[in-house]
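Objective 1.3, modelling of assemblies. Example input:
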Amino acid sequence: MSHSGWETVIGLEVHVQLATKTKIFSGASTAFGAEANTQACAIDLAMPGTLPVLNKQAVHYAVMFGLAIDAEIGKESAFERKNYFYPDSPKGYQTTQLEKPIVGRGNVEITLADGRTKNVRIHHAHLEEDAGKSLHEGDFRHGVSGIDLNRAGTPLIEIVSEPDMSNAEEAIAFAKRLHSIVTSIGICDGEMSQGSMRFDVNVSVRPTGTTELGTRTETKNLNSYKFMEEAIAKEVERQIDLIEDGGIIKQETRLYNGDTKVARSMRSKEEANDYRYFPCPDLLPVIVSDETIAELRRNLPELPDARQARFIEQYGLSHYDAGVIGSDAAMAAFFEIAAEKSGNAKLTANWIMGELAARLNSQDLSISKSPVSAEQLGGLVARIADDSISGKMAKQVFEGMWAGEGSADEIIEARGLKQVSDSGALEQMVVDVLTANQAMVDDYISSDEAKRKKKLGGFMGKIMQASKGQANPQQVNQILAQKLNELL
Amino acid sequence: MSIERQEIEKLATLSRIAIGEDTITEVSERLSSVLELVDQLQAVNTEGVEAMSHPMKATQRLREDEISEINQREAFQAVAPDTEDGLFLVPKVIE
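Predicted structure (tokens):
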């Protein structure tokens, strides 16, 4: 896609669901997937006479994010009401922060595919509550929508970046970095398919070399990197085409449907965004003491950069492998358990990034939901590393583990997959095959050098067949070559 | 500062409140008188005074992150105008 003469400016607003057990202002559970409205209490439903009580853990998680990106922490922050009418928000407003957010300016460094790094400035991050869900499609009567308020009141931090990104690659690298940070410090489960992280993308274009920002549009609620990439590409093209045709960009909110690949305008700023913010009278200023900040800083879990460096140092992983595994908190934890069990970190890393990642991707599973546990994978890699099984057998064992047949050792035993590496036994096997196939041996001896090489394969096949695939191929190869040489 | 009829209508739309033709003048006058009070407040010199986010000299108490609410869906839905399969039903909203 080339649009010479234009450059793109992108800023992100990222909603991160905090991994608390309860809502931000009530003691109702936030567990995902419960039956509709069974986790919506009187406070979440905005029943008259109820008052919010702020969740300490949500405040602490927000502060931890601030510490992770080296931001100023709002020692005194306050909540505002953002007024709008929508049935999935029973109060008629969202309790959020505007004037005094809990996290101030900070920085996130991103690394691009070519190894270049870039700093993305964070304008601020604030605490707020999530809304419920409106269901428009279902078996409802005509003209009716269903409302599930289980999600209403789930704590969020909204992270607002400066418009520091200039293409989709940078925007996605930034989104992935945030995912890596929030999952590493354990404040979010990172389950994108469950809406744990959602992205609003602000896009504008301007003639290359100019500094004034163009009018921006906001595409809301993207929940995958792929959709983000598609939505940005479409929007950049739309804006440039429109301007080149003499049109004017309207500031508006847009929606992108990743399934149908259709983008459309949701509402223009002038009609709807009059939120009439005012300080929430139900909530007092939130004070975070220096002692609390110091304690949270002391206990802050390892950040992605530090972990990647440690993986290179401690496990001898390559820069690339450490980058891939170390940036995903769940994958990193999985790796450490598996590597410990296998005793071979590099081979473990290969299996995680190869076979396991491919299978998880194909079934759209995150590693925390992997049917093969870290201990199981470690057990499998250990058997490859000590030559008990070949790479080919390992794939069969992996299939067995994926299907829930048990540990690697159990599957190797049950399926009789043990690789024979005992040189005495292998030598006997080779001799037996050569004796039983005298004609092939004669043919081999009478052939020239080049043809002999090809004929080796025939013997290999027979030996592997005789061993039911369990002979160690490298060793057989060696012994076979040696035996045949003796006959020449 | 007085509030125009148009603004009343816009606020009513945003708040989903029906204000009848016969009351719109009265609502306008009453809101205008509130805004006059605000005008008086705004006339005060606040140079160097930090904005106050709450009138009480107290800070927010925080709650431990422990589940304290049980499922009372049936009780809540018993007073709802319309429900189905555990969902609250509302007139179709689609943007």
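Chain A is about 40% helix and 20% strand.
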